[in-house]
Write a structure and sequence with these properties.
- By secondary structure, this protein is an all-alpha fold.
- It has one domain.
Length: 168
């Protein structure tokens, strides 16, 4: 199971990186297009959708790497046991909020699909496509939060803490 979850987080991070490369390609196409007198339709919208997708898809791998902003100054002052309880409380609350938001995003994706919502701009892109990137990214993040909470409940320290960092 550990291998599957780590692979899922890695895949999510790779997809985020590919979306950043896509943003680069769209921007480059715009630059070259302007030089040649050509218009790249809906380039700004596509880059915006890709940016949102990249941010959400990178959430889980960023959590595992310890890249999210945390209140380390406060946590460092707590003993190992108190710190574990704070990590559990914050992790549980974060999991609930993330799960709720992911469910609502999937609901929005479904509604956009059913009603045939299209993105504004020259390219009539079905809106459920970019929305699904956000929902997928937040769902993987929710899984990562549940994984972190499960580790804490087993008496282990989360992956985002380096060896020995939690026992101070």
């Amino acid at each position: 199971m550990r291998g599957f979850l780590d692979g899922l987080y890695r895949l999510s991070g790779v997809l985020a990186a590919l979306l950043v490369v896509f943003i680069f390609a769209v921007t480059l196409a715009q630059i070259v297009g302007r030089f040649l007198g050509l218009v790249v339709p809906s380039a700004n919208e596509l880059a915006g959708f890709a940016m949102a997708g990249a941010v959400f898809l990178a959430l889980a791998s960023t959590l595992r790497a310890g890249g999210h902003i945390r209140v380390a100054v406060l946590l460092r002052r707590l003993s190992g046991r108190a710190r574990r309880w704070v990590e559990l409380a914050v992790g549980g609350f974060s999991l609930l909020v993330s799960a709720y938001a992911a469910a609502q995003l999937w609901r929005q994706v479904w509604n956009s699909y059913v009603f045939g919502d299209l993105a504004p701009g020259l390219l009539p892109l079905p809106l459920w496509l970019p929305q699904s990137l956000l929902a997928l990214g937040l769902s993987v993040f929710t899984i990562a939060l549940a994984d972190t909470l499960a580790a804490l409940l087993r008496g282990e320290w989360p992956a985002y803490l380096s060896e020995g960092q939690g026992q101070e």
